[in-house]
């Protein structure tokens, strides 16, 4: 059996992964808070842990892995959104959950086995809080219940901080009902117009952290294998989950391997609304972003996986364009003889993923399989990373001769709808070569409009010597135009500029 090694935040080193029960490998990942479209950063943990899920299913069998990713559908951000918009909470959370699943589906993220909603586990949360009070780890005060951090000696072990460091570093909320500023909320009171549930401490709602402790316990048990999330959650969220779960179930060990993905940036900067580089997954998929073109889901996924999950990842348009070209050429090879291959993925790809999810290495290996014309191995191994090359090959954007306009959009409709002038080639065309080719087409069309046929034919013949075929087109609405078909995308642009 393939040996998997994973970097465990808890021990700060790579460890061999030994599941408690190979017949039921259990993983919990903190999911979205559903009040708005997922931004690009939110998609990173979904994609990273999807690759791990796929690897675990490959190694242990698809019926032997249980993956739980929760949905936080009670939270102050949701309440605020309902207040701002006047829309009912249930409508907001339901709609946003649907969007999330749609967007993640477009990125090739498999649905986890369980997607518990926090509001369906309020009873379990109340029971856990009652037990924490009874065992001296929590106290009720002024309608709130707080976890007593001093009652858990190992508090801070995951992030490797002392309680003093945490007080100094974190913006801890000081409140009169807290015995210690580090104590965190398990339950809080709700006003009549806020969502609330009856509890021994009055009508109220849970604090954020308790939901993951209650739901992981209900669905995975006291001890399970892997817990994941973004590294912004290490403290306080995961630290608090550990404290709650270890104190409520001292006989259990809670999660054994803690995995955290690093954050995502955009063009070298933090993604933020004020910098104008903030976008949602949906914005990218639909072309509502500064680049203006629709970034296909598999392209987003490819860009994500080209950086190791424990490194900060920089989203750039350039990477997206390269990813698109790579996927396009892989997809064309995958369908080149019309038979969809089955079989085992390449063992090197599996080994690379098993080495703490070396997705970049796996992609490099896929590129090598492409270069070696290993159609079957490429197709099956790409599937393990979540790329269905057969499906990609059917997408408009992956057609071998896509029509690329000046602003980089692709047209699927075919020659009849083409705008006037364009460049066609296998793979990407460097900007300067594209400009030079467009210039050439424009000159050629001008000679034709002027009925200077001799000059037009001479230009066409010269262009052909550089492997550029000029073709006249006529669109459905009767506009005459032209295309340059490039056989060599490395051609020196100045060679075309020199032709008249
Ligand atoms: P939230 O909906 O804010 O609770 O976040 C959902 C998930 O997205 C969590 O696992 C976060 O760690 C993760 N996340 C949020 N922002 C980023 C980012 N910029 N890069 C990577 N992951 C992020
Ligand atoms: Zn959580």
Which cofactors or ions or other ligands sit in this model? adenosine monophosphate, zinc ion
Determine the mean pLDDT.
91
CATH architectural label of the largest domain: 3-Layer(aba) Sandwich
CATH class of the largest domain: Alpha Beta
Low-confidence sequence ranges:
404-417
The structural class is alpha/beta
Total number of helices: 17
Total strand count, please? 18
Tell me about the largest β-sheet.
5 strands, mixed
The number of distinct structural domains comes to: 3
* Oligomeric description of these chains: single chain
- Write down the overall geometry: elongated
Strand order of the largest sheet: 15-14-16-18-17
Written account of the structure:
The structure is a single chain. The protein has 500 residues and is α/β, with parallel strands linked by helices. It folds into 3 domains: 5-261, Rossmann fold (3-Layer(aba) Sandwich), CATH 3.40.50.620; 264-397, no CATH class; 400-497, no CATH class. Helix content is 40%, strand content 16%. The protein is built from 17 helices and 18 strands. The protein has helices at residues 40-60, 76-85, 89-106, 122-134, 163-169, 209-220, 234-248, 281-286, 297-305, 317-334, 347-354, 359-371, 375-384, 389-393, 431-449, 453-465, 493-497, and strands spanning 5-8, 13-16, 25-29, 65-69, 138-141, 144-147, 184-189, 204-206, 223-230, 254-261, 264-266, 269-270, 313-315, 403-404, 410-411, 421-425, 468-474, 480-486. The strands form 5 sheets. It has a 5-stranded mixed beta sheet with strand order 15-14-16-18-17. α9 (297-305) crosses α10 (317-334) and α12 packs antiparallel against α13 (375-384). Mean pLDDT is 91; it is low at 404-417. The structure holds adenosine monophosphate and zinc ion. Residues 30, 32-33, 41-42, 44-45, 229-230, 232-233, 261, 263-264, 271 line the site of adenosine monophosphate.
């Amino acid at each position: 059996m393939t040996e998997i090694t994973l970097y465990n935040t808890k021990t700060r080193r790579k460890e061999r992964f030994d599941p408690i029960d190979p017949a039921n490998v259990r993983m919990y990942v903190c999911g979205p808070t559903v009040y708005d479209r997922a931004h690009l950063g939110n998609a990173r943990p979904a994609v990273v842990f999807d690759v791990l899920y796929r690897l675990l299913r490959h190694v242990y069998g698809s019926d032997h892995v249980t993956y739980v990713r929760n949905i936080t559908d009670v939270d102050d951000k949701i309440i605020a959104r309902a207040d701002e918009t006047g829309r009912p909470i249930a409508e907001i959370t339901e709609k946003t959950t649907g969007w999330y699943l749609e967007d993640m589906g477009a990125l090739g993220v498999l649905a986890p086995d369980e997607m518990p909603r926090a509001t369906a586990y309020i009873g379990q949360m109340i029971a856990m809080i009652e037990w924490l009070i009874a065992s001296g780890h929590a106290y009720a005060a002024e309608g709130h219940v707080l976890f007593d951090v001093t009652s858990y000696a190992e508090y801070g072990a995951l992030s490797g901080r002392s309680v003093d460091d945490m007080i100094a570093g974190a913006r801890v909320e000081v409140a009169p009902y807290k015995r210690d500023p580090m104590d965190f909320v398990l339950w809080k009171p709700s006003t009549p117009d806020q969502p609330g549930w009856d509890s021994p401490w009055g009508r109220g709602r849970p604090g954020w952290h308790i939901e993951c402790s209650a739901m992981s316990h209900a669905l995975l048990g006291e001890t399970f294998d892997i817990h994941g999330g973004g590294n912004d959650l290490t403290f306080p969220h995961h630290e608090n989950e550990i404290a709650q779960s270890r104190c409520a179930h001292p006989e259990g060990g809670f999660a054994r391997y803690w995995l955290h993905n690093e954050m995502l940036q955009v063009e070298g900067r933090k993604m933020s609304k004020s910098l104008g580089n903030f976008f949602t997954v949906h914005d990218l998929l639909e072309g509502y972003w500064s680049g203006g073109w629709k970034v296909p889901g598999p392209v987003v996924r490819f860009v994500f996986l080209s950086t190791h999950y424990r490194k900060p990842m920089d989203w750039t348009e350039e990477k997206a364009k390269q990813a698109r070209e790579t996927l396009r050429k892989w997809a064309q090879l995958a369908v080149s003889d019309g038979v969809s291959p089955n079989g085992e993925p390449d063992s090197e790809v599996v080994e690379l993923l098993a080495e703490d999810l070396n997705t970049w290495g796996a992609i490099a290996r896929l590129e090598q399989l492409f270069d070696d014309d290993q159609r079957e191995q490429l197709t099956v191994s790409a599937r393990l990373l979540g790329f269905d090359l057969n499906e990609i090959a059917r997408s408009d954007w992956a057609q071998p001769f896509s029509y690329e306009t000046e602003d980089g959009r692709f047209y699927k409709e075919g020659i009849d709808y083409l705008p006037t002038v364009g460049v066609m080639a296998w793979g990407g065309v460097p900007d300067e070569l594209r400009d030079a080719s467009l210039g050439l087409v424009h000159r050629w069309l001008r000679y034709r409009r002027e009925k200077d046929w001799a000059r037009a034919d001479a230009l066409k013949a010269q262009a052909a010597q550089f492997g550029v075929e000029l073709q006249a087109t006529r669109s459905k609405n009767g506009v005459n135009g032209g295309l340059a078909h490039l056989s060599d995308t490395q051609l020196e642009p100045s060679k075309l500029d020199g032709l008249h």
